[in-house]
Fold this sequence. Notes:
elongated
Amino acid sequence: TVGFRRSVMEIMSKVATNTKNNLAEAFLKLYRIKPVEQISVKEIAELAGYNRCTFYAYFDSVRDILNFAEGNLIEYVKNNILKIPLNDNSENVICKLAEIYAEKGDCLAIFLQNNNFIKRYKQILKPIFMKHKPFAALPKNTKTDILYEISISAIIGGFNYWYTNRDKIPADFFIMTLRTSLLDMLKNQSG
């Protein structure tokens, strides 16, 4: 009986996860075309194939599902970036970010228009970048913090530009250009 209950609970957990993810995907489809303030619970539920009661079983509001979707994306980025060995060079971090953009670019393009999301995104990337070359070799001071902020802003802006124009700009060319530009800047400023 215990095994049966565990099995039923696992199935229910998977169903709940799938339902939440389906609702979040429907939300993201709407969020791509209009601001969050113009999205209704009814629209999300109908687009996902559920009713409003199902939505409210998992989320309190449209803002709640926005936070859920943002949190999922932040976790996805964090989990993928953390796979890079420490003290590796920043080129591998940039390559991993390119893979993430290839996989989740639509979501990132939407969320990176939101200043609160950008702040969270930078916060999760900073400790990762600071543990990789060339940042790992720099002294821990205000100048390094400024160089990081300039670098991460350039990376975010560059990836947004590349993602929007990815049919015209090969990924390898973009990564090499970004990497070279950042390394040149850091080499010239690190002294």
